[in-house]
Amino acid sequence: MCILIHSGFVAEPKQHTSQSDEVEKGYVLTLAGRLLLKDSEMSSRPFLLGALDPVLMKPWQSFGAWFQNGDANPSAFATSHGKPFWDYAEYEPRINHLFNEAMAGVSLLIAKVMITKCKGFFKGLKSLVDVGGGTGTITKILANIFPEMDCTVFDLPHVVAGLQGEGNLKYIGGNMLDKVPFGDAVMLKVNFALYCCCVNQFLGI
Ligand SMILES: C[S@@+](CC[C@H](N)C(=O)[O-])C[C@H]1O[C@@H](n2cnc3c(N)ncnc32)[C@H](O)[C@@H]1O
């Protein structure tokens, strides 16, 4: 509880009992703490479950080997698992699903901040391509708000497999290293950094 209080997920308000001056101990969730609840509107739970999965934890133990010994792998993940993350996720449906859910969870918070703070940016655009757009959480919201804008979610084929676009939203599977279909605007987001900025904007932490 001390660690959770120190990191701002739980608070310990001072409560006085009515009869005496005795102080009762109690804990409440802070706004940040509520993001960890399963049923919270913008739950970060899938993101944490993803980050703490053994497959994604293992690379941290390979950092030493990756930095030293002239390791030519592109990442510590490849050192641990023999291939880069995206190639691994292509053949491991559990990891593909876990990762996509994690991204979709944090994307709701990102979308909320984008439409409250940056809505003006999208006004008047005829088309938009969300490169590396995952399962399209953010783009679906934008497509709804701007029905006149043609929206495309572009991601790896195994990520968008089986997803059906509707109205002004479509999905394209492909590798951005080969070909990116450019629109008026291209969104290319690094979720974690964006997420931290949004938490800061939204919750002030
Ligand atoms: C950090 S996630 C972003 C998720 C997404 N922005 C969202 O809101 O859910 C990065 C995304 O880039 C995709 N990606 C990685 N390499 C790619 C490539 N070469 N071509 C297309 N997409 C790629 C991944 O599949 C993943 O969905």
UniProtKB/TrEMBL annotation:
GO biological process: methylation
PROSITE patterns found in the cross-reference section: SAM_OMT_II (PS51683)
Keywords: Methyltransferase, S-adenosyl-L-methionine, Transferase
Residue stretches making up the O-methyltransferase C-terminal domain: 60-189
Single GO MF annotation: O-methyltransferase activity
Pfam families assigned to the protein according to its UniProt record, in alphabetical order: Methyltransf_2
PANTHER family the record matches: O-METHYLTRANSFERASE (PTHR11746)
Name recorded for this polypeptide: O-methyltransferase, family 2
Organism per entry: Corchorus capsularis (Jute)
Lineage of origin: Eukaryota, Viridiplantae, Streptophyta, Embryophyta, Tracheophyta
